[in-house]
Design a protein that fits this description.
The structure holds two protein chains of two kinds. Chain A is an all-beta fold. Helices cover 0% and strands 47% of the residues of chain A. In chain A, strands 2, 4, 5, 6, 9, 10 and 11 form a seven-stranded mixed beta sheet that branches. In chain A, strands 1-3-8-7 form a four-stranded antiparallel beta sheet, with no helix packed on it. Chain A is globular and about 40 Å long. In chain B, the strands form two sheets. In chain B, strands 2, 4, 5, 9, 10 and 11 form a six-stranded mixed beta sheet that branches. By secondary structure, chain B is mainly β. In chain B, 0% of the residues lie in helices and 54% in strands. The chains are: A mainly beta, B mainly beta. Chains A and B meet through strand 10 of A and strand 4, strand 5 and strand 10 of B.
Chain lengths: 117, 112
């Protein structure tokens, strides 16, 4: 079945540590996104990528980094510079001829919950 | 600024009744709207979408209504079932290739 796979499901970060969240899709979508979800708030965009080797900052990119070396993969690194990393992180992808925001829905993975030790 | 919001944070519905979840938006240039369902501990699941050149769109047991005059979006679920219990949120895309903005969600509780 086609879909988006996020791993791990739960992740714990120690003080001063960088952690990487994995996102893989087999939907052949060009665009991929990372969102952060906090209780009582809508999804907030961290980074997005519309094509391999290209990515753009979203609204809350500080303390995060991404790479897009393969069409299928868009890993997110939460760096030690992110002082409040505890959240539910969601990866999404969409089709649209290389455009990040066409009239096509974004499809989401099942998230990674990151907590601080 | 632009915003996407919901009228009710929690909605309780008797099993078998119809549910209506509402969403207000403020960007009159938005041209594409999406409803998602999110179950606890899972990612959002696409339910149905609608473009701004439409007023109504139907899916399986769901209907989305768009009223551009008052900038209002609603999701109707027919014959609500216990499996419909989840958080539902709307999203809007600004005109052209503007980013998608997500609402905060309404929790739907189905009473058996």
């Amino acid at each position: 079945d086609g879909g988006i796979t996020q791993s791990p499901k739960y992740l714990f970060r120690k003080e001063g540590q960088n952690v990487t969240l994995s996102c893989e899709q087999n939907l052949n979508h060009d665009a991929m996104y990372w969102y952060r979800q906090d209780p009582g708030q809508g999804l907030r965009l961290i980074y997005y990528s519309q094509i391999v080797n290209d990515f753009q900052k979203g609204d809350i990119a500080e303390g995060y980094s991404v790479s897009r070396e393969k069409k299928e993969s868009f890993p997110l690194t939460v760096t030690s510079a992110q002082k409040n990393p505890t959240a539910f992180y969601l990866c999404a992808s969409s089709s649209g001829q290389g455009r990040p925001y066409s009239n096509q829905p974004q499809h989401f993975g099942d998230g990674t919950r990151l907590s601080i030790l | 600024g632009e915003s996407v919001g919901l009228h009710l944070p929690t909605l309780s519905v008797q099993e078998g009744d119809n549910s209506i979840i509402n969403c207000a938006y403020s960007n009159s240039a938005s041209d594409y709207f999406i409803w998602y369902k999110q179950e606890s501990g899972k990612g959002p699941q696409f339910i149905i979408d609608i473009r701004s050149n439409m007023d109504k769109r139907q899916g399986q047991r769901v209907t989305v209504l768009l009223n551009k005059t008052v900038k209002h979006l609603s999701l109707q679920i027919a014959a609500t079932q216990p499996g419909d219990s989840a958080v539902y949120f709307c999203a809007e895309k600004g005109g052209g290739y503007q980013k998608v903005t997500f609402g905060t969600g309404t929790k739907l509780q189905v009473i058996p």
